Amino acid sequence: MVAFNAAVPLMTVVNYSFQETFSNNVFTWEGTRWFKQILRSDRFHAALGRQFLFTGIILFIQIPLGIFIALTMPKKGIGVSVCLVLMSMPLLIPWNVVGAMWNIFALPEIGFLGHTLNDLGFDYNFTQQTGDAWFTTVLMDVWHWTSLVVLLSYAGLRSIQPAYYQAAEIDGASRWAVFRHIELPKMKKVLTIAILLRFMDSFMIYTEPFVLTGGGPGNATAFLSIDLVKMALGQFDLGPAAAMSLIYFFIVLLVCWVFYNLMMRNEAQT
């Protein structure tokens, strides 16, 4: 049933990607025309570049930050439960609500963030300035999803046997040496999963930035997913949109395949 539900929409998209669709339900065969058009399109290249840039920034910030927070969390006592609950709370908020919250929070006139930054002398307006829109979008995603990295990293830390720490203490190892030679290698599997999940989430992000900025100002935050929706539903170019969605799908599939092979290689070595 699951395979059937996944196959039907996928085959529909594949069908549209090779045809021209008219309003009177007339279809004409176009072959690979739409794929060539998308791959040569400056619009697609720009959206793909923005998508990779956003994903790279997110991974660069969230992975080290998540590890750092996990290292500072308590290992026992009631503080463990409190920290886990607090870390889980952002993950429970629906994506559209997160976008709406940050839209209000960052408004330059009435939002706490926007009003505070302007009071400090910054000319902040995420609705009109590209840099501010990117800053707000990245900050929103860091707030929303760093907790996932924290929880995975903390689980990896808790799985390390106490004997490793005892041996390091006997040898007089520094805190950095313990992290580098014990904790980080033992966390390799969970960190690979964290990077994979955050890559997929950030590379396919749509709801939060769409609610926050609508892809603006201009096309500054029109990531690949937002540009795809505009093409399919805004312009009703179903053929090019279908081809673009398949290219999008294969990019994600390729990266996931690379990560999977890295995980299997690391597991074989250990």
From TrEMBL:
<feature type="transmembrane region" description="Helical">
    <location>
        <begin position="190"/>
        <end position="207"/>
    </location>
</feature>
<keyword id="KW-0472">Membrane</keyword>
<dbReference type="InterPro" id="IPR035906">
    <property type="entry name" value="MetI-like_sf"/>
</dbReference>
<dbReference type="InterPro" id="IPR052730">
    <property type="entry name" value="Sugar_ABC_transporter"/>
</dbReference>
<feature type="transmembrane region" description="Helical">
    <location>
        <begin position="238"/>
        <end position="260"/>
    </location>
</feature>
<keyword id="KW-1133">Transmembrane helix</keyword>
<feature type="domain" description="ABC transmembrane type-1">
    <location>
        <begin position="48"/>
        <end position="259"/>
    </location>
</feature>
<protein>
    <recommendedName>
        <fullName>ABC transmembrane type-1 domain-containing protein</fullName>
    </recommendedName>
</protein>
<dbReference type="GO" id="GO:0055085">
    <property type="term" value="P:transmembrane transport"/>
</dbReference>
<dbReference type="GO" id="GO:0016020">
    <property type="term" value="C:membrane"/>
</dbReference>
<dbReference type="InterPro" id="IPR000515">
    <property type="entry name" value="MetI-like"/>
</dbReference>
<dbReference type="Pfam" id="PF00528">
    <property type="entry name" value="BPD_transp_1"/>
</dbReference>
<keyword id="KW-0812">Transmembrane</keyword>
<feature type="transmembrane region" description="Helical">
    <location>
        <begin position="78"/>
        <end position="98"/>
    </location>
</feature>
<feature type="transmembrane region" description="Helical">
    <location>
        <begin position="133"/>
        <end position="157"/>
    </location>
</feature>
<feature type="transmembrane region" description="Helical">
    <location>
        <begin position="52"/>
        <end position="71"/>
    </location>
</feature>
